[in-house]
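User: Sequence for Glutaminase below. Tokens please.
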Amino acid sequence: MDYQAVLEEVAAHVRPQIGRGRVAQYIPALASVDEDRFGIALADVDGRVTGVGDWERPFSMQSISKAFSLALVLAEDGEKLWRRVGREPSGNPFNSLVQLEYEHGIPRNPFINAGALVVTDRLHTLTGDASTTMLDFLRAESGNPDLAFDQEVAVSETAHGDRNAALAHFMAGYGNLDNPVPTVLEHYFWQCSIEMSCRDLALAGGFLARHGLRADGSRLLSRSEAKRVNAVMLTCGTYDAAGDFAYRVGLPGKSGVGGGIVAVVPGRCTLCVWSPGLDARGNSVAGVAALDHFTTLTDWSVF
Ligand code: DON
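Assistant: Structure tokens for Glutaminase:
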């Protein structure tokens, strides 16, 4: 398949949608991003990568980091995590507090903020430094040693992080955090702030298409664990729009409020699309449309 030609056709198809939606406003450092950006990259399982548009321009990965932290914890710790976090879609916004109380401090899944805080807490306990562990992993997998935290975003998010702090304190009240709340929040915010391009993210998510194998051929996850991360991405990776994303795109995907989405075609390739305009559920409008058109053109959905 001529990936370049496919991505160009995808980009042409979604051009009218670029600039639609709203750039995330709740973190001031994200609100200043140019809403007319669009990039898409595809990395095949052999690590060949191609892209169009702004595919080499770094953006804030935000919640896409949650897919990597989940994989890193499962790699270190296996199935124990599931005692502390569920794996059902929440049907609620990513930052919702409401289910936590009647579900006794156990978040529905690792991709809503509450669940990601538990995963970060576990990663921190296992490694001694959750955010640096993730940064090192992303540098190795993307082959980009220049990847870095965006201090402005992390500081901005910390200053406007009352809701995440409420989630963390609430779970600590149920005994579902091992580390102090400020430590967990700090590592969660720094992970979210990492700046990456579509190129970097398509390469870094390659292990999910390679059934758990890292870029250097070593194994991060067993085949079964890789399948499970992909399954949770499919059912929960786009929050309360996961049903619609499965309906339209039909791939495991993880979005972030920076406007990026990573999607996986197991056995074939990992894609990353970026366009900052978000829909009401926090997913990139042009990004979802691009992946929708990609699977229509290639017939590469998992269904
Ligand atoms: O927790 C937050 O609010 C952000 N750092 C991440 C949110 C996010 O990307 C959710 N996504 N769609």
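The chain has one domain: 3-298.
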